[in-house]
């Protein structure tokens, strides 16, 4: 099988756009299935999406994706034109979601540079059978014709209501693409590729659109010009050309009297008024658009490679470091530099505004991640014979794009766990006085410099006794049962190898999954907590930082080493008194603060750092908190607060030394390196 294009830029564009289209298609299908009907707008959008995927995949020579897309396109063309009644929406949804899964799988092969060996014939046969069944209900007599159309790869189906006369008409088209859509020459090639299947003597300007990069500028300024002969009507050709993605303006005229040389020949004189069709996707215009005088509105959104944003963020971080190195230069101490510090404050203000702007560019809403969960809930509900409703709250909440990539898997595990373990069967819910349909809610909301993502269900809740029993069987208890709080008991489910399911099923019972939630969240400085009431449901909360790039930190010194803590985790700092130190039998040192006892972690012991300050009264204590857990860290002294750029630890350190409680490192204003502490990791260390 031909494995497609090798041009990486074109390939990346294809992968991105197809993934976006598939995501949108899946959302439309699930919404329509829930409503038990396919509205005309939904049908039109599905038809457009499948037409776009068909054209782009055919251009890339991915014939199996093009074939399945074309079969689906034909099905929805018939549904759009004939509007059949009594159509089985559930069966149609299942069918199209199968197509979605097929395309997703093949697209993953494209990403991994594998051969696209998926065989779509069985799925195409299912689509054709469904089409035949709905046509039979309308007493349609042209089944054999539609079979042939469905199996004919790459053919665009135009309306058969207006039969061709056999007389070829000459048409002249000028197409303007939306600003910022990028790859205009490749989009133009897609149009020509499909147009040649239904026309004769097709010429275009610019001509060498796939090889000549300069053709992009010509198309942007003058539009893409085509002249061709076809037996279709003006309206049919307008609909055909208009169906392609990212078209802003389309001019279509009958090119009467035009000769067809080796290059485009634009007709002289004005075409008859009745033969002129014009479409403006953004702004209507009373006259034709010529040359660079395009009157369409400017698009305010452009797509940018995320690697460029990463580079911009890195440069922003270097600017923050450089600013700190200038303003904190020890050579400035004792000098009278009022004008310098005034300018430095202005620089700090500008740098801060630039930082906020760069951060906002990287922020993306959680909506796409949330909507992916709808398919998981739907499929699991069917497999487990449960009726489950998914509610989305606060999906417009934004976080750093890199953060989203880390929370997708944890969120999926939590949702699957809620449906599998939390939601009861129909009979059990009804006998307990609950509604037949279980409810799972996904909620996102801002909490200072963090975002809370909450998964809530109204199921049976967690059974503490069963959790404790399983934990004892696997030797997972770290202290006596009677000393454990409810939260500590519930958090046992996040330990590796823990599962309360006695049977291994498609979804659970293998002891793998919930520990992945903790690992992925700790990798981005996040955490997870759980609350539950037996018989009422469970609430699981993921706490994640807005960004990984730049944080407000408190710098401390331990011996000759420097460490940085996120200021959001620090509850208070104080100089301890020896009389408040308590040594519990068989346990580490504790300190009494306002009647409460907290464990102490000596950082010099934790990281094997030599220091002269071991007496508590000579050092400083920092009380840190996360998810209800508190601890006091003992250090030599505070160095001050500063914005720091988070850098990943060198790979040789991560690979060769298992150092706990570190989130990364940063460069301070004096040029020294400081290790950034992971408070969540420190709180989970057994002292």
From TrEMBL:
Record-level GO cellular component terms: cytoplasm
Subcellular location: Cytoplasm
HPt domain mapped to chain residues: 3-110
Domain spans labelled CheW-like: 550-687
Top EC class of this enzyme: transferase
Cited SUPFAM superfamilies: ATPase domain of HSP90 chaperone/DNA topoisomerase II/histidine kinase, CheW-like, CheY-binding domain of CheA, Histidine-containing phosphotransfer domain, HPT domain, Homodimeric domain of signal transducing histidine kinase
Function: Involved in the transmission of sensory signals from the chemoreceptors to the flagellar motors. CheA is autophosphorylated; it can transfer its phosphate group to either CheB or CheY.
Protein name, as recorded: Chemotaxis protein CheA
Gene source species: Ruminiclostridium sufflavum DSM 19573
